[in-house]
Fold propanoyl-CoA C-acyltransferase.
Amino acid sequence: MSDVYVVGTDMIKFGRFPDRKVEDIGAEAALLALADAGLTIGDMQAVYSGNLGQAGAGVGQRILRQIGQTGVPVVNVANACATGATAFREGWMAIKAGVYDMVLAVGCEQMGKGLLGGAGGGDGISTEGLLGSGTMPSVFAHVGLEHARSYGTTFEQFAKVSVKNHHHSTLNPKAMYQIETPLEEVMGAEMISYPNTKLMCSVNVDGSAAAVLCSEKKARELGLLGRAVRVRASALASDPYTQHNLAAMDFNAVTKLAAKTAYEMAGLGPDEVDLIELHDCFATAEIVHYENLGLCGPGGAGRMIDTGETNLGGRIPVNVSGGLLSKGHPLGATGIANIYEITTHLRGEAGKRQVEGARIGLTHVVGAGSACAVHILEKV
């Protein structure tokens, strides 16, 4: 089976674009990624399009109407917050299986303001906080409170995640927000669902990202290996059955399963990873995923954030893009935007936020349902 490489990738600056259609922003990212590879849509043998479905059917085909209808197969993917990563993985699998040599993966979404996962108007997030609610702010509040109960994690430690990621975003021109938020400001912001304040919740934005994937043979033939990044592992998992979760969502268990699969596929451990883009949909989520991804042992996440290990310049920088908390979280685009960020660092092209000497990077997304995707990328 061929190795698979990312030979082109890009994303638009995340924001809000009420005067544009979802296929407009998807087409923009697709053209940017193709230009990054020095290729055209005519070179693609298939397209994998990620959109959570709020924009209607056939988003991939609608993108091709903008950039070139070549008659190639189009697969439209929806898989909660792992939608973009799943579209990317489908393209990876098709090349790995020898069906195609070159494909385009694109993820795009237009989000409404308010509650994570909702579209349109309203400010449902501002009324969140009822115990027992199944909405995402409450779910991840419960995740954080359970971590605090088990390990003594503090409100301040959770808040430091936002301080870090908002600082990182000031170095990323494609982030929705590029604003410093001091610890006191984060902790004093409107409480959404304790312990997550408003500044500890991900930003609902419009956005798109795309990647061109290629077989090793084709990349070599076209002279594209110079800036190419190898996909060393691609893992996708759903909730494993346990006596504790039964039919419920378990973001911890599904992340541990996907991470274990990815590390085994890549033949390496978490101590060999140089940087990570993980699913910080809420500040509490980032803390628990340090442990789920094996960056530290149980209960060690609070110490990691206190000592700056996950800051740019630290032992294992996490969410140097600004993460979902500042860059934004357009559901269908997030997984591929993470691929773009890691690829940019492995190429040495991340500018002021560059993780020096980065050779191995990991991306992680997890969505309600549950669906978790972990990719490990390697500098060639």
The first helix runs from residue 22 to 37. The radius of gyration is 19 Å.
